[in-house]
Design a protein that fits this description.
Layout (H helix, E strand, L loop, with lengths): L9 H13 L3 E6 L5 E6 L1 H33 L4 E2 L5 E2 L12
Length: 101
Amino acid sequence: MPAGVTSMSRRERSTRAARLETDKLIRCKWDAPRTAAEWYELTEPGRKRLSAQAREWHEYASACGRCWPRFLDLFAAGVIVESLAGDLKCPSRTSNCTCHC
């Protein structure tokens, strides 16, 4: 399996597909005469949702990309320490920080 690809059981795929179909985000088509295969396609609301989520992800990833080098510098300098809970805490976080560090 290629790196970054998550494996799902057939049951889990069916459950997720049913939820997406119920929400009218995908449409199921059957190729019964030839292979009895299921095909899914995005509906217009599904395309809109995917586009919005992709935009949000790109904004988040961009913010993290801007903050990550500074975070690593602070960590290497010992300014950022690991808390007892195992979460990394950034004492230099300001109110205008958008990276959620």
